[in-house]
Specification:
Blueprint: E1 2-5, E2 11-15, E3 18-22, E4 42-44, H1 50-53, E5 63-65, H2 68-78, E6 82-83, E7 94-97, E8 100-106, E9 112-113, E10 119-120, E11 125-130, E12 144-147, H3 156-165, E13 169-173, H4 182-192, E14 196-200, H5 212-222, E15 227-228, E16 235-238
Parallel strand pairs: 3-4, 4-5, 5-6, 12-13, 13-14, 14-15
Antiparallel strand pairs: 1-2, 1-16, 2-3, 7-8, 8-11, 9-10, 11-12
Helix pairs in contact: 3-4, 4-5
Length: about 240
């Protein structure tokens, strides 16, 4: 599984021959990539805020994985998409898309769309992406990546996502103000019991500018064995 961070919460994930793009928003200071350069099989949207769906219109015709509310909003405003299941998915569900299995889990955040925040997108989410279908039987051969979306710290990371969905790596928001900051994000990494942790959702706007070393230090302070990777924008990591 190859992971590429394009700044903010935008990730490209390759699972065998299937390419996924999460939360396309290339108007951020960490990337020089033209969104037209990418041709994902599926676009995954954690929620409908503008800094997570800002470039979804570039991928009209792609598979779309999001809640039915976000799918309907995108189709009304940005064109035709091949929504998974014809209408999207929802929290707790797992879908097989190409070579990947994608489970949507809740995120503690808001989900209004448009500048008025008058359109509800339902509950925000995060995605657990694996090359095998999750079951109650632990599979040490599987590779699993958790994109936490925009979220605060929640005990489901400790009680559900970590022990039952077993991510090997997690991308967690660290910018504070709108999401977790370095301290709570470090607790999330510890609770998830991952081997690899990636900070995201920082330095895009003045309210979320941080020193990422604070996150590295906080992860160490929890006693977690996770290795923190502070990627440069457009940098890839082989999981």
């Amino acid at each position: 599984m190859e992971l590429t961070w394009y700044g903010h919460s935008t990730w490209h994930v390759t699972v065998d021959d299937t390419e996924l793009l999460i939360d396309p928003f290339f108007d951020n200071p960490h990337t020089d990539t033209d969104p037209e350069e990418l041709d994902p099989d599926y676009v995954l949207l954690t929620h409908g805020h503008a800094d997570h769906i800002g470039d979804v219109d570039r991928y009209e015709g792609s598979g779309l994985v999001a809640t039915p509310e976000v799918v309907e909003y995108c189709e009304d405003n940005f064109g035709e998409f091949d929504a998974v299941g014809g209408m999207g998915m929802n929290l707790g569900g797992t879908v097989e898309i190409g070579d990947a299995f994608v489970t949507m889990h809740r995120a503690d955040h808001t989900n209004g769309m448009d500048t008025s925040y008058g359109t509800s997108g339902g509950m925000p989410g995060g995605f657990i992406i694996s090359d095998t279908k999750p079951t109650q039987v632990s599979d040490e051969e599987s590779t699993t990546f958790y994109h936490a979306g925009d979220t605060g710290l929640m005990t489901e990371m400790r009680d559900v996502i970590g022990p039952f969905l077993e991510p090997d790596a997690a991308a967690v928001p660290v910018g504070d103000h709108f999401t977790m900051g370095p301290m709570q994000a470090a607790v999330a990494v510890d609770w998830l019991d991952v081997d690899h942790a990636f900070p995201m959702h920082y330095d895009t706007f003045p309210p979320i500018e941080i020193d990422t070393q604070d996150f590295v230090n906080e992860v160490k302070g929890t006693g977690s064995d996770a290795e923190v990777h502070v990627l440069d924008g457009d940098e890839s990591f082989e999981l």
